[in-house]
Amino acid sequence: MRAPRVTVIGDLMIDHYLWGNCERISPEAPVQVVDVHKETTVLGGAGNVVNNLVALGAHVTVIGAVGNDETGRQLTSMLQAPQIVACMVTEDGRKTSRKTRVIAAHQQVVRYDSETRNPIQEETERKILAEFEESLIDSDIVLLSDYGKGLLTPALTQQLIRSANAQGKKVLVDPKGSDYSKYANAYLLTPNKKEATQATGISINSRESLQRAITELKNRLNLAVSIITLSEEGIAVWDNTLTVKQAAARDVFDVTGAGDTVLAALGYKLAQDHPLHASVEFANLAAGVVVGKIGSATATLDEIAEYEASLQRHVLGTRIKSRIEISSIAAALRKQQKKIVFTNGCFDILHRGHISYLKDARKLGDVLIVGLNSDASVKRLKGENRPVNSEEDRAVVLSALEYVDYVVIFDEDTPYELIREIGADILVKGGDYEGKNVVGSDLVKEVRLIKFLEGKSTTSIINSIRAKEAMA
């Protein structure tokens, strides 16, 4: 498909991140002390919509207002890219938005903002409208990203929508506030459930209330289509019938910017004349990718395709691979610069301890491969009465876990040769290996030990069953 041309107008800002660790409490006050080890700066607000569109391959014209300050100059310079045409209007006395987030151990600790939220001046409105009229000629679609920072005033927003409609260009809006009247006659809005509740006064807690709210928005604002995003439940669509497209997210680490991704993904597909429902499904997948990352993030077409494939791999047994297959798969993963995590074990009777262990192992990289001891291997290691479950049964159960990408059975007493064939980056073992030699440690970049849940083991389960049988 050709790369669409998208015009984005909205509140631009800088997202500033301070990354660190927290291991102590301040002696000055009962607050965490974060030792910062990394600092990053990315475009935020409407800028994150732009980043998402660029990641998808779109050509973007972005129009916005900045202050005559250092943050404004930095923001403008960050928009210098081959796929972006930036039309920034400078307004004296305005403070360009900058949000600083402190992140410790993948958790946001605090955020502090520096910005102006007053409506832009009339002269700034006229300049923005002039830039928009010129950009509209070559644009396929228009996205309005409203963060309530004063750019999208009621008068300007209505003028933008009227101009776009006059040229047959769809207008998609990520709204803000409780009064949506300024968005009237847009093609669609993308409020979340909380925002839709505020705008309609309808508490959305059932399918019936959802339908009332979504139709209220469509009818009141004369939208072509009505949409409400439902976080982990998916996206609701009303185009004469109510449809809820189920969310595609598997692991959620940070929802920052997920709304930007939905707006960008919808705009990208609709600009290429894809059907509405197919575009919504695509937006769901894109959101599923970004919420698995930390901070304002984007999703590429390759990441979305790979993510969709990973969701389909959850069919029982499809992730169980032979030695030859897993070697080929691992080689392809290395070419894609994916971080491969490997662990192994008997996994005879799957229990809570195993689930916790595998979940933590999966978080260490992009792909988790589990080496499973064959029946013969288990007997040599555990005795003639083990395993309780066959290698086939154990492999199928393991492959059904969302944290496990691939399972491969090996017959040796140790997985040394298997680790060599896979070329894993990280080797994971249980905490009981502390201070011990880990087989295969010389073949990987890193060995990580994960503590087992206390009292959770296959042996204890078997002993408990035998004790109960004896009492019976």
TrEMBL record:
Coiled-coil segments: none
EC class name: transferase
Pfam family, one: CTP_transf_like
Domain Cytidyltransferase-like as annotated: residue spans: 342-433
CDD domains to which the protein is assigned, alphabetical: RfaE_like
Key words, A-Z: ATP-binding, Carbohydrate metabolism, Kinase, Multifunctional enzyme, Nucleotide-binding, Nucleotidyltransferase, Transferase
GO molecular function: ATP binding; heptose 7-phosphate kinase activity; heptose-1-phosphate adenylyltransferase activity; phosphotransferase activity, alcohol group as acceptor
EC number: 2.7.1.167, 2.7.7.70
Keyword tRNA processing belongs to the record: no
Catalytic activity annotation: D-glycero-beta-D-manno-heptose 1-phosphate + ATP + H(+) = ADP-D-glycero-beta-D-manno-heptose + diphosphate; D-glycero-beta-D-manno-heptose 7-phosphate + ATP = D-glycero-beta-D-manno-heptose 1,7-bisphosphate + ADP + H(+)
GO CC list: cytosol
Carbohydrate kinase PfkB domain mapped to chain residues: 5-299
Residues annotated as the enzyme's active site: D260
Similarity-based family: In the C-terminal section; belongs to the cytidylyltransferase family.
Assembly notes: Homodimer.
Primary role: Catalyzes the ADP transfer from ATP to D-glycero-beta-D-manno-heptose 1-phosphate, yielding ADP-D-glycero-beta-D-manno-heptose.
Protein name: Bifunctional protein HldE
